[in-house]
Design goal:
Oligomer: single chain
Largest sheet: 2 strands, parallel
Shape: globular
Order of helices and strands: HEHEHH
Distance between the termini: 50 Å
Number of helices: 4
């Protein structure tokens, strides 16, 4: 049986944070499990409990990561699919609306094909978050300025004449 590596370490930090002086973390997962209302069904309770345990492990890894950065042990940048660009406080952030961030963060995670528009939105959200986080942590400058035109965005097929 196969499973996603995120079951053990959703941020992929376990293998790198002892070896690398600079650690870049991109988190495209949900940051907060949906708590909802308990249903009383045991299967739902098990899944809810597992989601909470996984979130606690992820939060612990993030605290270690940020602590290493704050103490000067590592240079780190962290960006998440659901973080609005304004939260990074980076000047000249790419033009990505909060609505687009929410749309990307709440997109389905099933392994069926994404539309061209969904792929473009995911590319833009990741690129904008990466740029803002790297600049906020002063790991890069904005020269040349980041631009969505550098992305391999999908274009509608050209009409043949």
């Amino acid at each position: 049986m196969l499973t996603d590596g995120g079951v053990y370490d959703n941020l992929g930090l376990e293998r790198v944070w002892r070896r690398c002086r600079t650690v870049l973390v991109s988190n495209a997962g949900k940051n907060k499990p949906e708590l909802g209302s308990p249903t009383g069904r045991w299967a739902g309770q098990v899944f809810r409990t597992l989601a909470l345990v996984q979130q606690q492990a992820e939060n612990s890894r993030k605290r270690i990561l940020f602590g290493m950065h704050n103490s000067g042990q590592r240079r780190t940048a962290y960006w998440s699919i659901d973080t609005p660009l304004a939260d990074y406080a980076a000047e000249n952030a790419l033009p990505l609306s909060n609505e687009n961030t929410v749309s990307a963060a709440t997109m389905r995670t099933r392994l069926n094909a994404f539309s061209s528009e969904e792929i473009d939105l995911l590319f833009k959200t990741g690129y904008a978050g990466c740029d803002a986080s790297l600049r906020a942590r002063q790991l890069v400058t904005n020269e040349p300025p980041a631009a969505f035109s550098r992305l391999p965005l999908r274009r509608p097929p050209r009409q043949l004449k």
